[in-house]
UniProtKB/TrEMBL annotation:
Pfam families: PNP_UDP_1 (PF01048). Residues 23-269 form the Nucleoside phosphorylase domain. PANTHER family: METHYLTHIOADENOSINE/PURINE NUCLEOSIDE PHOSPHORYLASE, PURINE NUCLEOSIDE PHOSPHORYLASE-RELATED. The lineage of its organism: Bacteria, Pseudomonadati, Bacteroidota, Cytophagia, Cytophagales. It is an enzyme of class 2 (transferase). Keywords: Glycosyltransferase, Phosphoprotein, Transferase. It comes from Rufibacter quisquiliarum. Pathway: Purine metabolism; purine nucleoside salvage. The purine nucleoside phosphorylases catalyze the phosphorolytic breakdown of the N-glycosidic bond in the beta-(deoxy)ribonucleoside molecules, with the formation of the corresponding free purine bases and pentose-1-phosphate. The keyword Glycosyltransferase applies. Belongs to the PNP/MTAP phosphorylase family. InterPro entries: Nucleoside_phosphorylase_d, Nucleoside_phosphorylase_sf, Pur_Nuc_Pase_Ino/Guo-sp, Purine_phosphorylase, Purine_phosphorylase-2_CS. This is Purine nucleoside phosphorylase.
Length: 272
């Protein structure tokens, strides 16, 4: 594994003129427009990078983009890998590990999620303060990769409190209505039954989605501080539940995109 990570990292360095990104960004479903705010220096197709999984979901385009965002050097994953696509957890988090080897100091993650808190509306932003992992596997199972991190990583602060606070300050300054809450990660790909939504609410979640937590676990393992934000694309509260179609999710994500882009860009601008 470590050798594959190293080969991918060396390849990327050779193709990007040794470009040094300081921050990593993962763009979720329907949230690719942040890329328009980047002055792009290099762009690599996942398919060209050794050992990189290739994206199969149509709403994800599969590029690693290097450039400047908010005056900082970033590497952006346009399109991520989900466990439900059939990838192993090692594959799902492969790019996150590569970003760390490339030298990023913080990770910024976005996703589309269903809202479980009855106060939420579609296209709201929820800054993730904690998570519940209901994925059937996780990327740390198996022999520990000591070069990356410890066998038993601490999970008392998977989302940097400092970054959460900075994000809330930015939201305040820009009059963005931002929520904070707990994200639960489920395997999917089917959406939840009404009974499952009630269960997820009961166990303490405010939003539900099919990604992010494996990546966050891999990042925490490597001691990489994380900021993550969900765009609420549908409401999973009894009485408000509608049949969900991907088009509606993409539409709600598109509506929230300017706010999410502003939040992440301003937050990255503030990092030293
Ligand atoms: N459930 C799970 N994942 C999701 C949802 C949902 O309601 N909306 C967007 N991603």
């Amino acid at each position: 594994m470590i050798q594959q990570l190293q080969e991918a990292t060396d390849f990327i360095r050779s193709k990007t003129n040794q470009y040094q990104p300081d921050f990593g960004v993962v763009l979720g479903t329907g949230l690719g427009a942040l890329v328009q705010d980047i002055s792009i220096q290099h762009s690599l197709d996942y398919a060209d990078i050794p050992h990189f999984p290739v994206s199969t979901v149509e709403s994800h385009s599969g590029k690693l983009i290097f450039g400047e965002l908010g005056g900082r050097n970033v590497v952006v994953m346009q399109g991520r890998f989900h466990y439900y696509e059939g990838y192993s957890m090692d594959q799902v988090v492969f790019p996150i590990r590569v970003m760390k080897l490339l030298g990023v100091k913080k990770l910024f993650v976005s996703n589309a999620a269903g809202g479980l808190d009855p106060e939420y509306n579609t296209s709201d932003l929820m800054v993730i303060t904690d998570h519940i992992n209901l994925q059937p596997a996780n990327p740390l199972i198996g022999k520990n990769i000591d070069e990356l991190g410890p066998r038993f990583p601490d999970m008392s602060e998977p989302y940097s409190q400092h970054l959460v606070q900075q994000a809330l300050d930015i939201a305040n300054q820009h009059n963005l209505n931002v929520r904070t809450g707990v994200y639960v990660s489920v395997p999917g790909p089917m959406l939840e039954t009404i009974a499952e939504y009630k269960y997820l609410r009961t166990i303490g979640a405010d939003a539900v989605g099919m990604s992010t937590v494996p990546e966050v676990i891999a990042a925490v393992h490597m001691n990489l501080p994380v900021f993550a934000v969900s765009v609420i694309t549908d409401l999973c509260v009894p009485g408000k539940i509608k049949k969900v179609v991907l088009l509606d999710i993409l539409e709600a994500a598109a509506k929230a995109e300017p706010n999410m882009t502003l939040l992440i860009k301003e937050l990255i601008k503030r990092q030293g």
